Every structure is written in structure tokens, then in C-alpha cells.
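C-alpha cells in:
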């Protein structure tokens, strides 16, 4: 591929997010922008690429700017690789470790916990969370009830559920994935 080739504008996800944030239908955006509903739908589903002029019309209808839509689109298309620690001098596997699996500031957070761990404190996250036991076992106390999770088990915790957990062996590896706290994805917003 030629490195000087310009990539067409890909803003569908950003347009959809902004439209939904404003509570607008495609018909309302169509009326505001003068662009057809089918064309707007194609933009949102990445089946059509708007010209700069059309993008500005969409941005005006969504009470934002084309620059903001493009910036939001670029952020939505991030590809990051987080490699497993392989450097010499890494702590032995028997020592508890915590490592982020998502780099940077994104809507998703994911962390891997390895080894025997005792969180000791109670958590209550704003948004949903999933815990997956890749190896070993863990005990999770959620809303006053204790659950034992074995290798391959997972637990979903909706936002607001009080919980604490501990890994019960040195061979335990747990992956916790959740919607980042800076994102407002609470049940009240989804209604």
C-alpha cells in the first residue's frame, strides 16, 4: 500500500455516538442537515464516506464540529498491543503481580492479577465489570454472598454491586474487565 495514500473519512461510530448522546433520530439529523436518512445510516455503518462538505453538514446538525467528529473517530479506532512481560529480571511467577491489559485512557479497562492476592478492601464500581479466572481459583464476596470461582469460571457484576475478592493460590491468574469509571454507562443512562 502506498504510504502517501489518504484514508477516506471514517466517522460512523463518532456520528452515531454523538447522535445518540443528543437523543436524536436519523430523521431529525436528516431534517437538520439536508442529507437523506439512508445516506446518514450508511455513514454510521461505515458503508459510505462523507465528503468534507457533507461531514460539516452532519456536524452542524449534531451541534459539534467536523474536527470534533474526526477526533472522536480517531480515538475510536485505536489499536494498542500490550505484550506479556518477558524482560530479564521480571519477578518470578510466584510473586503476586498486577498488570494493565489496556494501555492509556479508554472506555474499557482490563487488568490481569497473577499469584495469591488479597484485595482486602471492598469495591463498588460505577459501571459493569467481568471477572474471569484463567488459572487457579478465587473467592468473591458480592453483596454479602461468597462465591468460589475455579479455572474457566467468570462472574459478571453490574455497576454499583459491592464486592471484594481474593485469589486462593500462587498459580491463580484472574482477568478483570470493566467499563472505565470515567464513562457514564449506568443503568439510568441506558433507559
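Residues out:
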Amino acid at each position: 500500500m502506498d504510504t502517501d495514500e489518504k484514508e477516506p473519512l471514517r466517522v460512523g461510530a463518532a456520528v452515531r455516538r454523538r447522535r445518540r448522546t443528543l437523543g436524536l433520530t436519523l430523521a431529525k439529523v436528516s431534517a437538520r442537515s439536508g442529507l437523506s436518512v439512508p445516506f446518514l445510516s450508511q455513514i454510521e455503518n461505515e458503508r459510505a464516506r462523507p465528503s468534507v462538505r457533507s461531514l460539516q453538514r452532519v456536524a452542524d446538525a449534531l451541534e459539534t464540529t467536523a474536527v470534533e467528529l474526526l477526533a472522536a473517530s480517531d480515538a475510536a479506532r485505536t489499536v494498542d498491543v500490550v505484550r506479556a512481560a518477558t524482560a530479564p529480571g521480571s519477578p518470578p511467577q510466584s510473586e503476586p503481580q498486577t498488570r494493565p491489559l489496556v494501555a492509556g485512557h479508554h472506555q474499557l479497562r482490563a487488568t490481569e492479577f497473577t499469584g495469591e492476592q488479597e484485595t482486602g478492601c471492598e469495591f463498588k464500581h460505577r459501571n459493569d465489570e467481568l471477572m474471569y479466572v484463567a488459572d487457579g481459583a478465587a473467592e468473591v464476596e458480592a453483596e454479602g454472598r461468597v462465591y468460589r470461582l475455579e479455572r474457566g469460571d467468570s462472574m459478571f457484576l453490574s455497576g454499583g454491586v459491592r464486592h471484594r475478592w481474593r485469589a486462593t493460590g500462587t498459580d491463580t491468574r484472574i482477568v478483570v474487565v470493566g467499563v472505565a469509571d470515567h464513562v457514564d454507562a449506568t443503568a439510568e443512562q441506558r433507559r
